[in-house]
Each structure stands twice: as structure tokens, then as C-alpha cells.
Amino acid sequence: MFTAVEGARVPIRMWADPATVEDAAMRQLHNVANLKWVHGLAVMPDVHYGKGATVGSVIAMRDAVSPAAVGVDIGCGMSAVRTSLTAADLPDDLGKLRRRIEDAVPVGFAMHRTPVNPARVPGTGGWTEFWQAFGHLHTGVQNLRDRAQAQIGSLGGGNHFIEVCLEQGGPDAGRVWLMLHSGSRGIGNELAKRHIDIARKLPHNADLPDRDLAVFVAGTPEMEAYRRDLFWAQEYAARNRATMVALVQQAVADTVPGVRFDQPISCHHNYVAEETYDGVDVLVTRKGAIRAGSGDLGIIPGSMGTGSYIVRGLGNETSFHSASHGAGRRMSRTKARKTFTAADLAAQTDGVECRKDEGVVDEIPAAYKDIDSVIRAQTDLVEVVAHLKQVVCVKG
How many other CB atoms sit within 10 Å of the CB of residue 256? Predict the structure, then answer.
């Protein structure tokens, strides 16, 4: 259940203990809740400080949207696929499987030498029309089309990952799942930064408590341009994940012939949607949150050593049909690098085939909140469908 924090234009509905949220994040939440366009604000149990708006916040606005509250990785999200395999079907050498996935999907700053043939991505049509729409995006990104095409089907870095997981408990214990987390790569970032800069300069944003909360308002050319680019980037992110799913499935099939795959589950967790609550049409920004409408399947990952959850939404309107997007960080990347070593990372990812070097120490499990506690804090938002534990993790 949520706690209502008063003292702003609208109450802050929190599925986290306010006493455990850092002061800087609470100030951000109050700043958002005092914006004149805000219809409501819901805060997820993985909440933590972000740029402008906290990660783990759901902001419902009337006739307005804040591009910084969406974030720069527009459309970032998750995909998961259950396979016909069980743990016994996996090769003894999981390093071979990890390397096969890394060969199939570029990670970090890498991209494909030539764009992935859309014919390799079943169930996703409309590629010609999608790329034709690129010519209508912000003029500042028109020289990036070739790069954007080459990055479709690539992972990126930071907290993005590809995993091979085993289902925990229940009748399907040991069933193998594939899971990945990625977004709109460089093109989403470029579009977001340009629109954030435009919003900051608009006169109606001059007196905001935080320049990163600058908004576009309905009926203006700036809003129209942002919505066009935003929804295109969200589609790019979805197509990027669909392409990676196809590539990872082929990598697994090359390693374990005869495998079959269920239909993928996919969800954004940095995005905007047009929805209606209390009879009011609003633009809902989920920054580090997934849609959890009644029956919606979603994915809530933990860290690279702790496992993840497949969930089903319960349709709770007080959260604007939302739930958390993950465990959420409990310390910054900088602090994690200063606090932990590669040896600590190796110990905390024991039993997982993954990188264990200094380059990914900032992704160490101890830098994240406890995923089981996060799940328990939102039992009125989602029900657990499956608990997964990774055995292979690919990081950028």
C-alpha cells in the first residue's frame, strides 16, 4: 500500500518508505508535485535520485510533458522469452554460450558493421515506413541515420544486459528464460538532449525550481515536434529489443539445437503514454516504471547477481497502473567504484558466467536495493508470475 505525502499541490503517493528516500530525491518529488500541470504523482519502491525527476516516478500531466522527466534513453525497457530448455539442456561450458551471444549482439559502444536484415526479426513489419519517418525528425539528427540503422540490435553499456536465466521454484523450476534490457541507443539520447535544450529556453519555464523540469505544453509547435520524435524513439527502442531477441534466440539455437521459444514479453520503462484517469486525459511519464494495468505482463529485474521477476499487473489506478522497473540503485556509480573491487564483484556474482572486472564494478549487486524487498512493497500493484535467477549475464 502507498503512503501519501502531503505538502505539495498534489499528494505524493509513495510505495516506498519516505524515511528511506534520500533528501535530494524527496526534493525532486516535491518539485514535480508542485508543477501546475501535474494531475498526480506515484512513486515506486525502487525510487532514487535522477535528472530533474527521480528514477521510479510516474507523473501524470494535463496537456504537458517534461522531456527530462522521460530521460535521455527514450523507450528503455525489457524483453523476456521463455524457452523449451531446462537447466540440464544447457552446455557445461556456459562461457561458450556467453561468447556466442556476445558475437551475435554488439555491446558497449559497438554496433553492427551492416544493419541487421529485418527478415531476421519475425513479427515486426513496417520497417520501410519506420525509416522513412526518420526524415521528419529533428534536423540536428539527420546525419545520424546510418549510425542509428547500424545500432539496431545492439545492447549499449551501463546497466543494459542480456541474460540466460533459470526459473526458480514451482512446476517449471529449472526452465530456461532469455532476458534483455536496452533502449533507443544513441539516437534516442540525441533526440532527448535537443528537446530538453529547447524546453529550457521557453518563457513559461523561466521560474521553475529546477531547469530540468522544463515542459512542453499542448497546442505548441515545440510539443508537436517533441511528441513526434518521442514516439518514434520509443518505437526504435522496441524494434531494437525485438532485433536483439531474434539474435540471441539464434545464438542459443546454434548452441542447443532444437530449442523452441514462447512469444516474447516486452515493456518500456522510460516512456510517455496517453491515458485517462479520473475522467481526465493525461500524458503519463513513466521514468523507471512499467505499465501494470490489469493483466499486463511485465519484467522487474534485480542486479547482475540476484535474479529478476516476471509479473502481472493488478490494474491499481492509484499508481496510474504502474509498478517498479527494477531494484533501483542504492548508491551512485561513482560511490560503487570507490567502495567495491573486482574481487567483491566476483564474490557477489559467484555462479554467474559474466564479466568480473573493474569495468563493471559499478554494476555490482551491492550497489542496488534488495529486489525481493522491492517486490514485497508492491503486492497491490503486481502479482509474481515467475522468479528467475541468471546463470549467464552479458554486460556492455
Answer: 16
